[in-house]
Write a structure and sequence with these properties.
Helices cover 63% and strands 0% of the residues. Helix 1 packs antiparallel against helix 2. By secondary structure, the protein is mostly helical. The chain is elongated, with a radius of gyration of 22 Å. It has three helices and no strands.
């Protein structure tokens, strides 16, 4: 197997991207509030959602690096949704009501 630094380069790119975007958000929101510009404040909020997306992607890369063990599933603890039968019973009970334009009971 070849030696690769691809994951390290990706995490470095995420660190730089998050740091630069966060600094820009702070500056933009500060100037927006100081000048009373709703456009700058709204754009800072939009950039904040971009940073949250970067953080979620970074978390996915980190979780993908974790090796599975006997007690964990894919590197994390296995969780079962509770109650396991709630989704199938809901979808089979209300099947067709939403697609036919009937109001939900």
């Amino acid at each position: 197997m070849a030696h690769s630094h691809q994951i390290q380069q990706q995490t470095s790119a995420f660190k730089i991207g998050v740091a630069l975007n966060t600094a820009f958000i702070v500056l933009e929101a500060g100037y927006g509030f100081a000048s009373g510009s709703l456009a700058l404040v709204a754009d800072a909020g939009h950039n904040l959602s971009d940073v949250l997306g970067l953080l979620i992607s970074w978390l996915a890369i980190w979780l993908g690096q974790k090796a599975p063990t006997i007690s964990t599933h894919m590197g994390t603890k296995a969780h079962q949704s509770w109650p396991p039968s709630s989704t199938p019973s809901f979808t089979s009970r209300y099947r067709g009501h939403f697609s036919r334009g009937h109001p939900a009971p």
